[in-house]
Amino acid sequence: MSTHQPPLSQAAPAAPEWQAAPGGPYPGYVSPIPVVRTRLGHAITSEWTKIRSVRSTIWTLGVFVLLVVGIGLLAGALVSSSSSSGDLSDGNALSLGFFGLLLGSMCIITLGVLTTASEYGTGMIRTTMVACPSRARVLAAKAIVFFAVAFVITLAASAFVAMTQVSMLSDVARTPTGGEWLKGTVGVSLYIALLGLLSLIVGSIIRHSAGAITVMIGAVLAPLVIALFMFSSSLEQVRNALFEYSIPNQLSVFYSNSLSDSGPSGWDPLWIILGVTAVAFAGAYALLEKRDV
C-alpha cells in the first residue's frame, strides 16, 4: 500500500530564511535593530527627557526664578532709595540676595522630591525599572540630571541678581571681593543644588510626594522656629546649635552675614550639606536594593 503524497503545489510553505527547516540546522536570527549594551549615559538621557518634558519642572523653576530675581531686585531698590542705606557702607552688597534664595529654595526642594516620589505615585517607576533594571544606575542618573539643572538655574538667577544689586548699591555699599563673588554665586548655587538633591533622595526613601516635601520644609524651618521659643537658660547651648546649623543661617554664611557669632563659617556649610547628602544617598541606595518597586 503506497503512501499518498500531496501535490507539490499543496506542500507546506518553506520556512522563513531565519528559521531552520524541520530536521535542519538553526542558522539564528539577526535583528535589523542594533542591540546596544545600556550604560549610565542612556539612563541620563532618559532622565533628562523626563525632567524637561513635565509641567512640574517648568512651574517650580519658573516660580524659583521669579522669587529670586523679584525679591532680590525689590530688596536692592528699597535699600538704595532708603535714607538709612548708608548702613551698608561696611557690608556686602550681595547679601540682599539671601531673601529671595531662601524662599526660592522651597521650589528646588519641591522639584527634587517630585523627581523621584511622583514616579512612585503614578506607577511610572515600574516602567523605569523595566527599561533599566540597575536601580543604582537609575538613582544616579536622576541625581546627576537634577543636580545639573538646579545648579545651572540657581547660578544664572543668583549671578544676575548679584550683578544688578552691586550696580544699584554702588554708591552706598562697598564692592564685593573676588572671594565674596565666588561664595555669593557659585557657592550658594552649589548649596541650593545639594539641598534639592537631598530632597530628591528623601523622596526616594519616603516614596510619597506630600510627605517628603513636608519633611524637607520642616528640616529647613523647624530648627530656627524651635530655637526662637527656647527661653530657658538651661537650653542655651541647644538654642545656639539650632541657630548655627539651621539651613537659613548656613545660607547666610555665603554672604558673610551669619545669624550667630559662632558656628559654620567660610565654606563649612557646603561641606556639611555634602556630607549629609552623601549619607542619605547611601541609605536610599540600600533601601532601593531591598524594597520591591
From TrEMBL:
It comes from the Bacteria. GO terms for cellular component: plasma membrane. The chain crosses the membrane at residues 58-81, 93-117, 138-161, 181-203, 210-231, 270-288. Keywords: Membrane, Transmembrane, Transmembrane helix. The keyword Membrane applies. GO terms for molecular function: ABC-type transporter activity. The keyword Membrane applies. This is ABC transporter. It comes from Streptomyces fuscichromogenes.
